[in-house]
Amino acid sequence: MKLFAALALGLAATTEAFSPAARTTAPRTALSATATEWDLANIGRSVRIEGSSREHWEFPDPNQEIVQVGVDSNGRPVEALVELWIGPDWTPMKVKAYTEDGMMRPVQALIGTRNKAAAIDINNTGPGDFPLNAAAAYAGPSMVGQRADLLTANQGRYIEGGAVHSVNFDATVDQVQVLLYTDTRQLNAQVELLNGPNNFKQKYEVFTNNGLLNSLYVIFNTPGAGNVVRVTNLAPLEFPCKAFIASV
Asked: Alpha carbon of 244 to those of 20, 71, 108, 114: distances in Å?
């Protein structure tokens, strides 16, 4: 009888352990909060863009300046061209984006509108069988604040035209943020996420005629170990830029 009583108590304890009341919710970390903010459904109107086609979003409010852009896929590669349109025939900023896996490492960027009525155009430059999903909307206060905080987090790195700067990150870092800007001169640079010697997983190439009004801010997902962020200033020597790189 004692044996049966002990088994009954043990079974009851096991049942309680798997009951809904006994389950606990994992705490919401800063990383999970950031990841949620970059979900396309939370950004705004999400559109599926087939290969060799495009879509654009209108931003008419001159009182807001920062636009949040997100692009992902079902795990296939993503090749896209993101352009800022102001007026009928002016494109002051272009960003070429590539990622090897649009689910693991989506495109995540903040783009300024120069406080003007503008439009963001996203062109899927990949082949027809590589569709992507994209969304764009005015960035919320937390995103704008995160970008501003990066400028005060460290001194940044001065990169002359033609120079290269790399930063290594260990396996404990899940996301890296990068901000590139200039002192009103043109910004023509490339930012890459590498994992292994010259094995890039994701990259951005930006050109703008004013790197102060249109700085480039991107976030890389960095799963695993051996991740390196490499910045290359593609402009001539007389067009330096400044890079701020830090974990999220």
From this structure: 45, 23, 16, 21
